[in-house]
Each structure stands twice: as C-alpha cells, then as structure tokens.
Description:
Low-confidence stretches: 348-354
Pfam families: OTT_1508_deam
InterPro entries: OTT_1508_deam-like
Shape: elongated
Number of helices: 13
Number of strands: 5
Number of domains: 2
Order of helices and strands: HEEHHHHHHHEHEHEHHH
Radius of gyration: 23 Å
Amino acid sequence: MESISPLRGNELCYISTIIKSAAAITDWDAALGNNKAGKVQEVQCMQIKDQLFIAGNFYRIDEGAAIKSYLSSFGITNRYDFESCMQYSHELLTMNNERWLKIQNKKETDDATFNLKKIKIDVHTMPKYSGQDNLVIHGFAESKPVFLMEAFGDDKIGAIMDLLAKPRKDQPNRNEKLSWFLRRFLGVAESLGAVKATGGPHGYVGSFSESKDVNIVKSEKGVHAELVLLSFLTRAVVDSPDKFYGQTVYLGGSKNTCLWCKAWMDHYRKWIKEWFSMKLILPNEYTHEIEALIRPHGSGAGNRPKWEGMAYAGESAKALFNGSAGGNYADLADLEGPADNPNSLLAWRDAPGPGPAH
Length: 358
C-alpha cells in the first residue's frame, strides 16, 4: 500500500475541519432516507512518518465512532481513496447554489434520459460548513493540501448528479458505492443503484506497528483528541525508541487546543525532545500572527491521559500520563528545571530503561 503524502500542521487543520463537518451532517450508519444528524465537536489529526492518525473527543458520545463511520462509508483502502473522500466532501460543503442549479438545468435541457431519472436536490438544504468551520477553511485556504487546490469542473459536478439520479441502462460501470455516499451526504432517500461501501477503516488502530495510511485512534472518555493522539504515539515511542529517534511529528485540528491541553503539550514537547530528540510541530508556530483569528479554542477541561504500567521514561512521563484532572499543570511547572537538577521532571533518574537522548 502506498503511503499518504506528508501533511503539515495547517493542512491537518484543514482536513480535520472537513472531517468534522462531513461526519456531523448525518448518521452515517443509518440507511438512506434517515436524515438524522450526527454530532462531532472536534477532530484532530497527527502525521508521523508516512501515516495519518485521526481522533475525536469522547464526552457525551464517542466522536471517534462517528468519524470512522463517515470514512468507512466512502471506503478508504489507500491514500487515493482518502484524498478523493476529502475532495468530494469539501466540494459539496462549499457548493455554490447558483452553480449547482445552472449545471442541473443544462443537463435537463441537453439530456432527455437524465431528465427522466433525475433526483432534484433542494439547494437551500444542502449541507454547508458552519460559521466556525468556515473560519478555518477560508483562513487556511492558501495552505490547504495540494490535492484540494483544484475545484471540480462542471463535468465532474454533472457526474455527481448522474450518480444521485436513478440508474440508467447506459451506465454499465456505475459507481454504486460512490452513489450511496453522495446520496447519504445530500439526504437522498432513493436506494436503487446505490450500495454502501465496505472498505476501511474497519476498526480502530491498535498499535503503531498495525497502522496503515489512514488510521482512527480510539477516543478516550474525558481526554481531548490531541492528547489521545499523543498518548498513542508515546506508547509506540517508549516501546521502540530507535524507530522514532529524531522524528518530527505534526499535529493540527479543527480547533485550537484548550488552555489545559496547551499547558500539557508545552511540557510534553520538552520531555519528548529531551528523551527522544523528537519535535512536535503545531500550526501556531507558523501562523501565530493570525492563528487566534482563525481557529476557535477548544473549551472544557480535559484530563491527562492515563498509562498504567508505562516503562520508565523519566519523572516527567509519570506526571504527564497519570490520568489526573487537567488544571494548569502547576505540579509540572514547579518541578521543571535544568536536566542536571535532581528534582527536574526532565532529569533521568537511576532506573531501568533508556535515558535522555543527548
């Protein structure tokens, strides 16, 4: 399987927003005709090496489950499937109503067969990005992934209308899986000529060694999505440090981190750099002048991740992964200091396991 092109922080914010919006427009596990909406408040994405990892929050509902249902409804088996899913989703969420009607009217005039099989879409009820999500989509437009740079032409929009319509005899190679996805996206009840995809992701990734191009990390109740991703990464790093030494990790989401998670990540970045020479790069490092005007900050007070039985990786790791309530992390700040300070959270205590990377 070919690996997905590396995505940087701003690009991760962009696709996180597409996923958040698309996963929430409907219940992707429901049959066509059931227009119950889903609920997804937050999506975060992490790029490490050639793999992409995605997670949602888990408070009242498991948002990761909704994300998984959305992507598997398209059928993600390789990098091109994922990029195609993002393209179709983004195109529909940004569709200009007048353009849609213009293309539809032309097809009705030029193609009598289409006119008989068409399914009209109420352009006034087509799903759109929320005002909050539009801040990211417009604010990060110049740094969106390259595969989203070129919008669909009129012919491609016309092909979408053909897949929304009832099947015709002159469509022997009709893409029934894409037809189902598009109909579910736009709330079409007609099921003839549409079959739900059975592709990936089939479940949550269990470990880094099992990861594919695109992976869903299982949400943890009470822990914000970005910390879920970094907790997943840390387990792999501590277990196999030689495979990750010196790597750069990119993290970005549809929202800025809440203040508690930001404090946690500030300490986490120091620790993982000290011990494994790894860098964690966030979007605000190169959009700091406008960042606050683009992505809203997450709300709430997430807990620290909990990792029982963690191999020794310094006192900092113990504190970062003790599962306690978030707060302002004063316990970390009070103990932090030079690495040669015996009370420093970054200091390597005399214990089994690898020491800091120097």
